[in-house]
Every structure is written in structure tokens, then in C-alpha cells.
Amino acid sequence: MMMRILIILLLFSIPTVPGVLLAFFLIRSRDRVGRNSIKYAIDHLPMGLAFYEPDGMVLLSNLVINSYCERTTKKPLMNCRSFLNDLYVESLTEPVPEYEVPDQFMMRQDDRMYQIRHREIPVQGRSVFQMTIVDLTDLYENEARLLKEAEQLQAAQEKLKSYDAEAEELARNEAFLAAKTRIHDMLGQELLATRYFLTEPQERLTAQDLIDRWDTVLKELMRSEGDGLTQAKSTMTQDTMQALKQAASAIGLRLKVEGAFPSDSARLARLIVSCARVCMTNAVRHGNANEMTISFSDDHKEEGGYTITFSNNGIIPSPRFVKGGGLNGLERTVEEAQGSVSYRFEGSFSVVVKVGSI
Amino acid sequence: MDDHMKIKVMIVEDQELQRAFISDALTDSGRYDVAVSIDNADLSDLYVDGGGIDLVLMDIYTAFGADGLDASERIKAMHPEVKIILMTSMPESAWITRARDAGVESFWYKEVAPDAILSVCDRTMGGESVYPVFVA
Question: What's the rounded Cα separation, in Å, for the pair B93 and A29?
């Protein structure tokens, strides 16, 4: 019986022994890195790699660097120092000096960009040199593109700054021209009136009339200060609101006003009148409204700003309504004054204009 | 002439004296009725929209710097049947070109003599286009 068991075990063990022995040797071999495995590994690196003696003699090189050397020098890689010399000193390829740093330089060849590095690495007290060649074309092109975009953005920013300054200068010149125009206009009229009086027989115009006219003109000139557009604040406010109400009435619109009309500047008054015109026209033409409310709020006056809301009792458009020329022009005008425009559709249609002191 | 037969005029001029002068000249002629007299060109198209205006006498530079040329272009775009006479005391040829392009009927350099403006109004309403002629 025992003999039978032994024979059975022997029969089963015979095929497994080679397997066991084979496994043993295989396991042992994984702990050992051989020349072939190293060569295999570096040949499959996505870059050129070579190790060489101080005199340039190649100790180990991979397929990529060999291929590069053959392509560039038309000969196999035998000496790395000679190869480096060919690349750099002899300008075998097109150097890119702006990227040169010690132990590293860039080369351009066939529309590709390569980074070549060489350095000493001590190995067990012995001096060994390492050379690498890496294709950085994509990285270089991205960097170049980013640099170009940055330059374009910088240029655009400079243009915007310049535009800002020009816009400011333009606004100043516009105000100055307006003042000159106004004064010129007034004086021109009176000079013509005087000439007419002196040269033509008069029935309608007497000497006293002429003197009264000059008196009014001179008072008006003295009243105009600064840029010439400044008017007595209370008169501007009162007259402007009255003018707006009358204009609204002309198109069948009743105008209500809430809050105080900003009397800071004539430019702001003009902007408000311009916006009111568009809103009133649209309210009647598109909204079929008969009442409009203009609300003035200095809720952000500490920042130098006002909020003016134009609401009407007409048809409320869809939030996705298509703006016409009037509203587009209004938005442009407000934005040029560094303000903003928004719309509300709850309860009634409102155009909300936020603008600072101008 | 009955009022309903008179030509309805809107005067847009920021100087009160000038507005009064033109208004008097037109009213005294018996042919015109000054329906509206305002100082701000930005509000002028609202009055035209409201109807009842046949002729607009528009100053180029009005209250708060509102531009009469801009207003004229807007009015002509919406109401081509309304006739416009642009007025100014400053000889600026670029304005004349722009006025013609906008379809403005006439352009008048302001003078004090009442028959001058009356003449321009009559000729314009008669279908004539009156523009300054520059002689070198």
C-alpha cells in the first residue's frame, strides 16, 4: 500500500519538478538587471540618450540619439564630444541662442526644436558624462504662441488705455467746443442784429431793443461758467423736467417723476433726456402705453452714481425681445458714459440706467 | 388765412431770443402757425411723432449739446414727409454734406432780417431745396 502511494506521488511529481526548477530560476532572474534589459529600456525612451567618457567615447547610447546623429552628421555616433561640437560650434543645425544656458542649448532642424543637454555624473568615483536630446517642438510652439498672444493682449491693453485717454480728451474738447460754439453763436447773432439795425430802415427793431438784447446776451455770457454748458442748477432741473413733460404730452404720454433730477452736470442731463426720448417713443410706439414714470435714485451716490428707471404701463415684452435701433443706441450712449443698462419685466417693463457723475 | 390752412411749424433753438424772433417773423406773415417752440433737439422727434408738424426749423447746436443734425436724421428716417430747415451761424461745410445726405430740405445761415427766414420757409414749402452757395 505504501509502495503504491509512493509510486503515485512520484508519477505526479516528475512533471512538476522542471516547472518548479524553472520557476525558481525565473524568480531569481527578476532581481537581476542585465545589459540587454537596460539597452531595451533606453532604446524605447522618447528622447536621445548617451553616456560617454571624458574624451567623448560613447559608453552607451540609445537608438534615438544614434538616429539623430546619422540624420545630422551622416555618420554613426562614435564620439559624443565631436557630435556636440558638430551640433553647436560648427552650426550643423540652426541654434536658438535665446535659450542657451550652461550645459544646455536649443537646436532647430527641419522645423523641429530640440533641447540638448550634457552634464557630468559621477559614477562610483569615476567621471561619466550624459548627453540627452529632447524634442520640445510642441512645447516651444505653445510657448511662442502664448508669448505672441500675450504681446497682442498687451498691445490691445495699451490701445484701450490710449483710447481711454483719447476719449477723455475728446470729452474735454467737446465741452470746450460747445462753450465756444455757444458764445460764438450768441455774439454772432447780436453782431448781425446790430449791423442790420445800422444799415437798414427799421420798423420792428429800435435802439432800445438792441441795447436790451446786448444786455441779455452779456448777462447770459457772464452766467455761463467753466465749460460754458453749466447752467443754474435749479433752472436746468426745472426747465428740463418741464420740457420732458411737455414732449411726453405731445405723444399722448403722461409723465410722472419720482425722486430728484440729478443736477450735477449738463452732460448727465443730456444723457437722461436722450434716454427718456427713446423710452417714451418705445412706450407709445411698441407698448401702447399712456403713462411713463421716471424714477431717480442716488442709491450709489457715494460712488458718484445714479440709477434712473424708466417704466411704463404698456405691454410688457418678452425677456427675449429683440432690441431695436433706439435701445441699441441708448445702450451705446450709456456705455460711452461708463454706465450700464438693464431691463426688468415684472409688473411693468422698465429700462434701468446706472451711471456715475459725468 | 384760417388756422387749419396754416403751415404748422416747430422751432428748435436753444436761444430764447432767437426763438422769439423767428416765431414772431413766421406768425406775423399769416402763413405759418408756430405749434411748438423748444430748446432741445433730443425731444424734437417726439413732437413730430405726435403729429401735426409740417415744417421743422432746427438749430444744429441746442440745449445741453443736443445735436440738431442727429435729430434731423431721426425725423427724416421716420417722417420723410416733414420738411426740415437746418439753421446755424457757423459755416461748417461738413454739416451741409451731412444735411443733404439725411434728406434735409434746406440749410440756412442765420440772419436777423425776418424776410430772410420767411423766404427760406416759403421756398422750402414750395418744393425748393435751399442750400448755401459758396463762392471762392
Answer: 99
